[in-house]
Amino acid sequence: MACTPRHGGAVRVARACGLLLALATLACASSESRKKEAAQASVRAFFAALPAGDCKVLGPMLATGGGAQPCEDTVRELLEHGMELVEVLDAAVDGRDPDAVLVQAKVARDGTVRETPYILRVERQGGGWKLRL
Q1: Is there a contact between 124 and 110 (Cβ–Cβ < 8 Å)?
Q2: What is the 8-class DSSP label of residue 116?
Q3: CB distance 129 to 61 below 8 Å
Q4: How many angstroms separate the CA atoms of 43 and 49, rounded?
Q5: Spatial distance between the Cα atoms of 76 and 63, rounded to a whole number of angstroms
Q6: What is the pTM for the complete model shown?
Q7: By the 8 A CB rule, do 35 and 95 touch?
């Protein structure tokens, strides 16, 4: 069947729509990937700074609002229990909130690595990614 000018226009429109859909899919995937990488980096940075116990450094890494404890209380509790990051395992954008990522991490408490990974919530707040504990 030969393409008439009318059909040719429809084919061009369909191709353009397909291209736009492919580009939108790639943009969403890369956006999700960037979110997960940023959240994982935030978890690593927080636990790397935790042993010093300095809330001037750690405070800006913690999410605020929603019943969050003051930095000093959070840090004291984590240090009292000897919490350490062993490994970041995976991350997924929270299906309920596109500005939140759930990070699975192996964490040690008092030197003992917990078998079940912790799920740490990291939220985009004030232009950065903050850990909610």
Answers
A1: no
A2: S
A3: no
A4: 10
A5: 16
A6: 0.77
A7: no
Cα–Cα distance for residue pair 45/57, rounded to 1 Å: 10
pLDDT per residue as tens digits for the range 88-113 = 999 999 999 999 999 999 999 999 99
Question: What are the strands, taking DSSP E only, across the chain?
Answer: 84-93, 100-109, 112-113, 118-125, 128-132
| The two three-digit tokens of residue 65, written as one number | 């609002």
CA–CA gap between residue 39 and residue 121 (Å, rounded): 9
d(CA 57, CA 131): 13
Whether the pLDDT of residue 44 is over 50: the answer is yes
Give the strand pairing for 112-113 and 128-132: unpaired
Map tokens 């929603």 to a residue. Answer: 66
For 10, 11, 99, the CA distances from 6, given in Å and listed in that order, are: 7, 9, 45
CA 34 to chain centre: 8
Classify residue 113 as exposed, middle or buried by CB count within 10 Å of its CB (0-12, 13-18, 19+).
exposed
